[in-house]
TrEMBL record:
The keyword RNA-binding is annotated on this UniProt entry: no
Species lineage: Bacteria, Pseudomonadati, Pseudomonadota, Gammaproteobacteria, Alteromonadales
GO-annotated molecular function: ATP binding; phosphorelay sensor kinase activity
HAMP domain residues: 184-239
Pfam families named among the record's database cross-references: CpxA_peri (PF16527), HAMP (PF00672), HATPase_c (PF02518), HisKA (PF00512)
Chemical reaction(s) catalysed: ATP + protein L-histidine = ADP + protein N-phospho-L-histidine
CDD domains xrefs: HAMP, HisKA
Name the record gives this protein: histidine kinase
PANTHER family documented for this protein: SENSOR HISTIDINE KINASE CPXA (PTHR45528)
Listed transmembrane segments: 12-36, 165-186
Domain Histidine kinase, residue spans: 247-454
Length: 454
């Protein structure tokens, strides 16, 4: 295996991603102390050393300044309005003796300076602290420290060193962003595969994984290519099956036509008997079955035909008129609730056949009332047909859309048909990339719901 192919594998991408995330977090935590190390104990420069030595020299020349009544004068003598210099004297016990107000920054600096063999300077926030310089007067050892405003901004990393919680939050944020990017990088192609798989499961056999996922060089790209190959095979098999069914149905029409012609000639010659009537009946039934099979085949194979943007009422006008007439003949009431404003892009013929099949079933099995209504939602048109019949068992609600499936095994072809009507409806709705569902109504009856995306 070549090195380039090796690093294109998903395993190495995951490994490198988590390794970078961990390394970044560790680097942030470990680098700050190292960077601070060189700045915490900077050697005392000549200017600051001269300042402290001048203070020591003045105190040695005027020992009375160490008297408790004169110690406060040290502050006044070495202060400037623009850059006030504060001088602090400590005794052998480390106590500040020239002021009662000892700033916290000085205490921190004194602890830091204890570990240094020479005077140092340290910038803490906006203050510069420096020292100490030791001197002896009357066998008493003193130390002198200086504090003044910093004349230059301190390095940026001091801010983070003093805000450890912020450093922790930044490390969590950076690692979260990196892990989030890694999750998005892996999740996006999986989401695309999921969408394509769902579309394929709903009957959209032309749906494929997008090119961006296909162009990936890792296992995700290989999976997408395999998925598309599988989808191509499924689409080809289903298309061939539908075409074969259509071809067989078409070929059966020829001998069936001859059979009907022979029957007509026999009757013309005056031959009338029960056998001929039975043959004619079965021939008509076979002709009806072939017609249904051809319709199912055409609906599926003509899915790529141009769609039309028109009103739903206009598309279904003839179907609704026929349904009203059929319901009246059976002393049943058909209620139509379709707004004239509903207008969308669709395949008129398949949609008409889908609605017609469901309506005829509803009229056949309803006791008295059938309702068809259409509503327009934000992203779909919903057509719902409800009857007040007995309904069907819950376990059969999805099976009724399979070809040749009839819920009641006791029904004959006169009452139950061939079991192709709802299969044709299913195919027609799939052509529109929609959904078809059946529900039992309360207290009784059946509801067929057709959802067609705009």
């Amino acid at each position: 295996m070549r090195i380039s192919n090796l690093f294109n594998r998903l395993f190495f991408k995951l490994l490198i991603g988590f390794w970078l995330c961990s390394s970044l977090t560790i680097a942030i935590v470990l680098t700050l102390p190292i960077m601070l190390k060189d700045h915490n104990k900077a050697p005392l420069n000549a200017h600051l050393q001269t300042v402290l030595q001048t203070v020591v020299k003045d105190i040695k020349n005027k020992p009375e300044l160490l008297d408790s009544n004169h110690l406060h004068k040290i502050h006044r003598k070495y202060s400037d309005r623009n850059k006030p210099l504060k001088i602090y004297l400590t005794n052998t016990d480390g106590q500040v003796i020239n002021t009662r107000k000892v700033p916290r920054s000085l205490r921190e600096f004194m602890l830091l300076a204890e570990d240094s063999p020479q005077p140092i300077s340290h910038q803490l926030k906006d203050e510069l602290l420096f020292g100490p310089i030791n001197f002896t007067i009357k066998q008493q050892v003193y130390q002198v420290y200086g504090r003044m405003p910093a004349n230059h901004p301190r390095p940026w990393f001091f801010f983070f060193a003093e805000n450890k919680l912020l450093v922790t939050l930044i490390a969590i944020l950076l690692s979260g962003l990196l892990c989030g990017f890694l999750a998005w990088y892996l999740g996006k192609p999986l989401n695309n595969l999921k969408k394509s798989a769902n579309a394929l499961a709903k009957g959209d056999l032309s749906n494929r994984v997008d090119k961006a996922t296909l162009n990936r060089t890792d296992e995700m790209g290989q999976l997408a290519q395999t998925f598309n190959t599988m989808a191509d095979s499924i689409e080809a098999m289903v298309t061939n099956q539908q075409r074969l069914m259509g071809d067989i149905s078409h070929e059966l029409r020829t001998p069936l036509t001859r059979l009907k012609l022979a029957l007509a000639l026999a009757r013309k010659k005056g031959q009338q008997n029960t056998e001929l009537s039975r043959i004619e009946y079965e021939a008509n039934q076979l002709d009806e079955l072939i017609g249904e099979l051809l319709t199912l085949s055409r609906v599926t194979l003509n899915a790529n035909e141009k769609q039309v943007y028109t009103e739903l009422n206009e598309t279904l006008s003839q179907v609704l008129d026929d349904a009203e007439f059929e319901a009246e003949q059976q002393q049943k009431c058909l209620q139509i609730d379709i707004d004239d404003s509903i207008k969308f892009t669709h395949h008129p013929k398949p949609l008409c056949r889908a609605v017609e099949n469901v309506l005829r079933n509803a009229i056949r099995y309803a006791h008295k009332h059938i309702i068809i209504q259409a509503t327009e939602e934000k992203s779909a048109i919903v057509i719902e047909i409800k009857d007040d019949g007995k309904g069907i068992e819950d376990k059969e609600l999805q099976a009724i859309f399979r070809p040749f499936y009839r819920p009641d095994d006791a029904r004959d072809r006169n009452s139950g048909g061939w079991g192709l009507g709802l299969a044709i409806t299913q195919a027609a709705i799939q052509v529109h990339k929609g959904e078809l569902k059946a529900f039992n109504a309360t207290p009784h009856g059946l509801i067929i719901n057709m959802r067609i995306p705009k």
